Amino acid sequence: MRRTRVMLALASALLVAVGVACTSRQTPGPTPSSSGQTTQTPTPTLPPVGVDCRDLATQGLTLRLRNGAGLEIAAVDLGSGPMGVVLAHQSDANMCQWLPYATLLAQQGYRVVAFDFAGFGASTPTRNKTYPDDIRTVVDYLRVHGAERVVVIGASMGATMSVVAAAAIVPPIAGVVAVSAPKVFDSIDAERAAPHLRTPALYIAGNADGDYQVYATELDEATPESLRDLLVVDAPEHGVDLVGAQTPQGDQVRSAISDFLQEHLNPPATPSATR
Q1: CB 183 within 8 A of CB 160
Q2: Helix residue ranges per DSSP H, 58-108
Q3: Which one-letter DSSP state was computed for residue 32?
Q4: SS3 (DSSP) at 185
Q5: Predicted pLDDT of residue 16
Q6: What pLDDT is attached to residue 196?
Q7: Which residue numbers in the chain have pLDDT < 70?
Q8: Per the confidence metrics, is the pTM higher than 0.85?
Q9: 268, exposed or middle or buried, with CB in 10 Å at 0-12, 13-18, 19+?
Q10: Measured between alpha carbons, how far is 118 from 186 in angstroms, rounded to an integer?
Q11: Which of 86, 97, 209, 275 is 20 to 30 A from 237, alpha carbon to alpha carbon?
Q12: Closest CA to 250 of 57, 104, 51, 93
């Protein structure tokens, strides 16, 4: 049964070769049109604001993955185990903004990969973006390296691309979380892809973040009813800043994501054989 939760209660510098310090800042969401088209459980404590991105990145394995177009995708692999999480960044950022949260998830027992989309950060420069294929490339990496189940979490632009990628990846991933997603970004349409999802989807937005509550609701409604879930919190933060907010609303968001990961990444128990 669909579980819709509307709760009105109440980290970005360029990462080149994983060598530039990253500090947290609040950034407004991309400016969308009225159609949504855009052109551009208690939770452990996140690492403090101002932690050097290099210090977080060197806790993991730095990667250079090659996507279907032959472009190199820079990434950092943290944690271990069979439960994989992919983190897709915003349009004004790179993987560095996700590393504090990636560190938290790795501490919770997940295998986490944060990456730079082609044309961003330390990945291959290109004008011909390959967003959904970049996500598929990282999912494939995790699967080849032992991940039995994978959830993709995206913020803003990365959320749009995560929905589109999740609808296309075969076999389906275990779930997708879209935080502050534009319905359309660079002509890539998440609302059109949503009806084709075959995996659970959680849409999250702040009700004071422009029209993103509206977009989250419309994406949720476009998703098959048995697979969709919606969380709207009373907050102005956008994307990664909403996930990382040190507020009651941020706690709600992280708790909802934690519950989603626990539900969809833990394999069902195998019934004991009877004699």
Answers
A1: yes
A2: 99-107
A3: B
A4: strand
A5: 32
A6: 98
A7: 1-58, 267-275
A8: no
A9: exposed
A10: 14
A11: 86
A12: 104
How many CB atoms lie under 10 A from the CB of residue 178? 31
Contact predicate 246/215, CB 8 Å:
no
Q: Could you tell me the CA-to-CA distances from 145 to 15, 56, 88, 126, 261 in Å, in that order?
A: 25, 21, 19, 27, 19
Residue range 128-157, pLDDT digits in tens? 999 999 999 999 999 999 999 999 999 999
Residue showing tokens 């915003």? 90
Tell me the one-letter amino acid at 10: L
**CA distances (Å), 124 to each of 13, 118, 222, in order?**
17, 5, 34
Report the C-alpha gap between 93 and 162 in whole angstroms.
16
CA–CA separation, 17 vs 20, rounded Å? 8
Nearest to 242 by CA among 31, 92, 28, 84: 28
CA pair distance 181, 216, nearest whole angstrom: 7
Please calculate the CA angle 96-100-104 and round it to the nearest 5 degrees: 140
Question: Other C-beta atoms within 10 Å of 44: how many?
Answer: 11
Helix (H, G, I), strand (E, B) or coil at 197: coil
